[in-house]
Structure to design on (401 residues):
């Protein structure tokens, strides 16, 4: 690719993306669904009952004791790593497609795996310092594991309740699940099949990691790190739902991850996008046909490769050209198992965030907000990464001279 085309690529696509970002951030939210007055009353009654009797719940039947041990064992088994968690969510959704959050969790967890392997991929391995990359991986892995540890027992309790035809959600207490979710599950089991359950699950999981991850001193220090700001500027935090061909994919950019409200609204937007009739079938077909490995090669084999080139040239070459790679050029994106071995297995904490009922009710709604087409953000992000990688390499060469 000649010099003029390189300049045309980098100096059109990246600025266009920057120019469009403010319009996306300032676009108005549209509320698609809110709690009815009756639902609010029912929720408050459930929460009041649960909070009153929560500490007095006792297990007297042997079958319930066995069920608790079974669910704890199954959760620990599936909470091995990002691959096992992501697979478990999809397996559950295939059996219980009415629990939509399970498929949303599967697709978001896929993206968490992509973020993890990006840290050891073609570009970031050479842009980020090793210590920061390790810390960022640890935070991603910890959040992924903590959400699963809280959510998967809820899913298994639902499965058992469905099988037996009776609510077993009073056992939530024994898995440190928030009373917030126990009340919502009770309403769902009584027949409330509005968006209440998936939206509440989004609120619950983000509130859970807010207390036990995002607000920790360890994570706050990571957020302040200059390299994190560079990572945020490069827009690496895209949640991509592949729809093949890839130019038809959907998803959202993540902004301001340290904000609980921003993460909840992102989850609501992603839920709306994923289960839109135009997108669901194609995305679900992709998930069924494509086992999750953590490599971006899963969804785009024309751009990404699992093998790093052992014969790289001394001077790196540009591989990207607008919305594709140059002929015979591919970007290295490894399997997760090939680059990360350490995983998070605790300690896990009680989901004790729920205290302000009015705040929780206010957040239970479904919103959507217009954003930049994900295909543009995705490719602009790749070009930013490659630009940063090339600039850093040539800076080192000039410094040596």
């Amino acid at each position: 690719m000649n010099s003029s085309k390189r300049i045309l690529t980098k100096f059109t696509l990246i600025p266009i993306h920057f120019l469009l970002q403010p319009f996306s951030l300032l676009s108005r939210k549209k509320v698609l669904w809110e709690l009815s007055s009756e639902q609010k009353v029912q929720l408050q009654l459930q929460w009041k009952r649960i909070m009153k009797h929560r500490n007095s719940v006792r297990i007297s039947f042997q079958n319930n004791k066995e069920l608790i041990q079974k669910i704890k064992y199954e959760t620990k088994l599936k909470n091995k790593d990002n691959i096992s968690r992501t697979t478990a969510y999809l397996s559950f959704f295939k059996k219980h497609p009415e629990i939509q959050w399970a498929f949303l969790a599967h697709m978001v967890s896929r993206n968490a795996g992509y973020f993890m392997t990006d840290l050891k991929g073609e570009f970031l391995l050479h842009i980020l310092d090793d210590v920061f990359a390790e810390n960022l991986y640890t935070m991603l892995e910890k959040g992924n594991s903590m959400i699963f540890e809280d959510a998967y027992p809820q899913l298994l309790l639902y499965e058992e309740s469905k099988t037996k035809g009776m609510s077993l959600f009073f056992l939530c207490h024994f898995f440190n699940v928030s009373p917030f979710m126990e009340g919502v599950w009770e309403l769902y089991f009584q027949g409330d099949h509005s968006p209440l359950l998936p939206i509440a699950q989004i609120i619950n999981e983000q509130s859970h990691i807010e207390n036990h991850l995002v607000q920790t001193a360890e994570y706050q220090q990571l957020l302040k790190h200059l390299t994190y700001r560079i990572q945020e500027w490069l827009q690496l935090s895209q949640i991509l739902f592949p729809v093949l061909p890839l130019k038809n994919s959907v998803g959202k950019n993540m902004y301001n991850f340290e904000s609980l409200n921003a993460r909840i609204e992102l989850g609501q937007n992603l839920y709306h996008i994923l289960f839109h009739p135009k997108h669901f079938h194609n995305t679900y077909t992709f998930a069924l046909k494509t086992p999750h490995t953590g490599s971006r090669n899963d969804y785009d084999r024309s751009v990404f490769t699992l093998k790093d080139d052992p014969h790289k040239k001394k001077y790196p070459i540009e591989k990207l050209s607008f919305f594709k790679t140059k002929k015979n050029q591919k970007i290295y994106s490894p399997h997760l198992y090939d680059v990360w071995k350490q995983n998070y297995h605790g300690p896990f904490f009680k989901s004790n965030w729920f205290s302000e009922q009015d705040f929780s009710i206010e957040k239970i709604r479904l919103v959507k907000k217009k954003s930049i087409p994900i295909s543009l953000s995705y490719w602009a992000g790749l070009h930013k990464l490659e630009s940063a990688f090339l600039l850093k390499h040539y800076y080192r060469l000039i410094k040596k001279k």
